[in-house]
């Protein structure tokens, strides 16, 4: 009896050990699968608080491997793809390093719909990549080392390359892709395939390390209200909307901004939107679909283009280009009045002017210098706006500017 009981106990013990080994092996395999899944899907884990309790949980967000800190206030310059990939980049780096500038807005998808950086030959974007920037990851590494905040400029609905390739997602005039008087084609903001196309590109560069995706030309073509009945195009999901043409356009543009922010949330980047300065002075721009308040409520940063040369006498200033301080001062008051009423107020980061506009004058006209740039910065600062971006299409910026006023 004793021997039988001993054999039974040993057998039971062996059975328990075998089962424990099997269970442990299964758990290890499952854990391994989870680890592999996590590695495939995410690079980094951040901790967020649950709103209604003190419990904390982990949410997956992407980490590019680069580390950029948001400046106390973004003060940046515009850099074309050609400049970023050429010898001019050294001079621009030096300008930022030796002054109180701290950011660069770099063309990634340009005004023609082309990518400015080199991609792999098997990339879905190989046919639209001009490749000015030979090594974009390397460029971002340089910016990280020099603590320069990187902003990717992505032109959205002005896109001749995509329009020519996919006329069904553009605007047609007698069966051909419609172009404006500058020979530029636009794609259709009503079409969500166009939205996704642009967000896929934005995600690619967010993965590389850009901290801010700035969308430009988030609108319909200028003067669209005069040709909307003449052009052929789809209304997409807005076909059955019971609103008029103006509101349909506003809905489409605003919805794109919401979509962009949602899609990029996983990457932990800021979303910024370029918008016409005059959009803040009217309830909504009827042709292009920009509603300043609605766009501002759905973005992290609003970047109004407030170049003095581009204004009419709206503020009672006869020749705005000649009075940069007064124009920017008057605009800032209008913008602050609107943004202060919003529940979700974005950062204001306007585009200001560091270029001359000889086309406004019969003679030489006003030549913009350091004092004119400083005047705009001062006007913003006095109205509580500390961030700004400086535009010069040739990337030639005034020397000796005091960038903090």
Would you kindly provide a written description of the structure presented here, covering whatever features stand out?
This protein is α/β, with parallel strands linked by helices. The protein folds into 2 domains: 2-61, no CATH class; 75-391, Aldolase class I (TIM Barrel), CATH 3.20.20.70. The chain is 35% helix and 17% strand. It has 10 helices and 15 strands. The chain has helices at residues 2-41, 81-84, 88-97, 136-145, 160-165, 192-208, 245-264, 292-297, 324-339, 370-382; strands at residues 44-49, 56-61, 75-79, 103-109, 115-117, 129-133, 149-155, 172-173, 176-177, 212-216, 270-276, 301-305, 347-348, 351-353, 388-391. The chain has a 9-stranded parallel sheet with strand order 13-12-11-10-7-4-3-15-14. A hairpin with a 2-residue loop joins strand 8 and strand 9 (176-177). Helix 6 (192-208) packs parallel to helix 7 (245-264). It starts with a helix and ends in a 14-residue tail after the last strand. Mean pLDDT is 89; it is low at 1-8 and 26-59.
Amino-to-carboxy terminus distance:
98 Å
Fraction of residues in H or I helices:
25-40%
H/E series, N to C?
Answer: HEEEHHEEEHEHEEHEHEHEHEEHE
Strand order, main sheet: write it out: 13-12-11-10-7-4-3-15-14
Tally the beta strands: 15
Q: Specify the biggest β-sheet.
A: 9 strands, parallel
Let me know the average pLDDT: 89
Low-confidence stretches: 1-8, 26-59
Binned strand content: 15-25%
Broad CATH class of the largest domain: Alpha Beta
Structural class: alpha/beta
What's the domain count? 2
CATH architecture level-2 label of the largest domain: Alpha-Beta Barrel
Question: What name does the CATH topology of the largest domain carry?
Answer: TIM Barrel
